[in-house]
Amino acid sequence: PITTVYTSPLRRAAQTADILAKQHPSARRVTLAGLAESTPTLPRDFTADYGELTAAQFATMRREADSAHEVLFSPISGPDRHELVSSHGNQIRYLLFRALDLPLDMWRRFDLMNCSVSLVVVEPSHVWAARVGDAGHLPSRLQAYVRERVAHAFEARHEKPIGVETP
Predict the structure, then answer these.
(1) What is the pLDDT of residues 109-120, one digit of tens each?
(2) Which of 152, 163, 87, 147 is nearest to 118 (CA)?
(3) pTM to 2 decimals?
(4) Quick one: CA dihedral 136, 139, 145, 148, positive or negative?
């Protein structure tokens, strides 16, 4: 059973958390500021996209995201827990990279579809990802974000990507 539904304080994630919480009425609902969309670290090769942010702003966003990381990915003692998190692309990518001990400045090279599901297992000795960015629960017409970008990139080269419908 799901024990906790964590959510960003931002509306779209909170609305998704409402839907999830209805399916798991015994789960507690927790809002974490560190799950709000932000840019916790400057991504390599994309520095020009974030030129207006100051070092102090990055530091604040990183502190908040790291706080969420501690809540979500610290090993626990006692019985297993199953928790859901409703957040945003940048936060999810950053948290996944942090949990898996990957280079934090590379998070933007990794993409997630809207409404995708990632499954992360936290064990006493290590953290591992069983699923990342899975959108197979959605019909292809509802799979968004990456699909449009990938289709557009292939369209520019006059190719059709495998398994991607172009509008």
Answers:
(1) 888 888 889 999
(2) 87
(3) 0.80
(4) positive
Instruction: Give the whole-angstrom CA distance, residue 6 versus residue 27.
Output: 10
Residues 65, 95 contacting (CB under 8 angstroms) = yes
Question: Which pLDDT score is estimated for 167?
Answer: 45
**Residue 96 pLDDT exceeds 50:** yes
Fill in the amino acid letter for 103: P
Indicate the SS3 state at residue 75: coil
Phi-psi region of 69 (alpha: psi -120 to 50; beta: other; left: phi over 0): alpha
C-beta of residue 27 within 8 angstroms of C-beta of residue 2? yes
At 120, phi and psi to the nearest 5? -120, 130
Please name which of 108, 107, 32, 40 lies closest in space to residue 72, comparing C-alpha atoms. Answer: 32
Residue 71 CB neighbour total at 10 angstroms = 15
What the block records as the tokens of 140 is 């292809």
Read off the pLDDT of residues 4-53 as tens digits, 9 standing for 90 and up: 999 999 999 999 999 999 999 999 999 999 999 988 888 777 777 777 88
Q: Tokens 């024990």 identify what position?
A: 3
- The one-letter code for the residue type at 141 is R
Contact 9, 36 (CB under 8 A): yes
DSSP class of 129? E
Mean pLDDT of 74-97: 90
